[in-house]
Write a structure and sequence with these properties.
The chain is an alpha+beta fold and 150 residues long. The chain has a 5-stranded antiparallel beta sheet with strand order 4-3-2-1-5, sandwiched between helices. The chain has one domain. The longest helix is centred in the N-terminal third of the chain and has 21 residues.
Length: 150
């Protein structure tokens, strides 16, 4: 009986440790590899801001580099995009490992200010709750759907 209890306890501890490994602790300036789209294997994710005041819990504002997003005109858009607000859970599904830190941030002030304004007005500001690569696909599909300006 004591051996069974010890085995059960050990199994619970291992499962708890494995589950905890999936939840990351994010800090501003971190650079992460993430589950990218196939055409963007060198894309990286950088943590720009963290907001803990949302009804959704922690919202992490990220920037992405080395993207290959195409516009309806056929032209490639700039390879970086920011800020993108994600729930912590969505980022936890997307990141692979931290690959560094930086103090050279992509711009995020205007986008964050608009997000915060909506929140302070009692609205739920747009926040992505799906994996990063899925959102990049949706963004590209939106750009492809926009007719090119003459």
């Amino acid at each position: 009986m004591p051996n069974n209890f010890l085995r059960l306890l050990a199994a619970c501890l291992l499962l708890g440790a494995a589950g905890g490994a999936l939840a990351e602790t994010y800090q501003v300036g971190q650079v992460w590899s993430y589950k990218t789209r196939p055409q963007e294997p060198k894309s990286e994710l950088m943590i720009l801001r963290i907001d803990n005041t949302s009804k959704l819990g922690q919202v992490v504002f990220i920037g992405l580099t080395n993207l290959r997003i195409q516009h309806a005109s056929g032209k490639m858009l700039p390879p970086s995009i920011s800020p993108l607000p994600f729930t912590k859970a969505a980022l936890d599904q997307s990141v692979i490992k931290q690959i560094g830190t930086t103090d050279k941030f992509l711009k995020s002030d205007f986008g964050y200010a608009k997000w915060k304004e909506a929140q302070q007005a009692g609205k739920t500001p747009p926040t992505y709750d799906r994996p990063v690569a899925e959102i990049v696909n949706r963004l590209e599909n939106g750009f492809i759907g926009i007719p090119a300006k003459p």
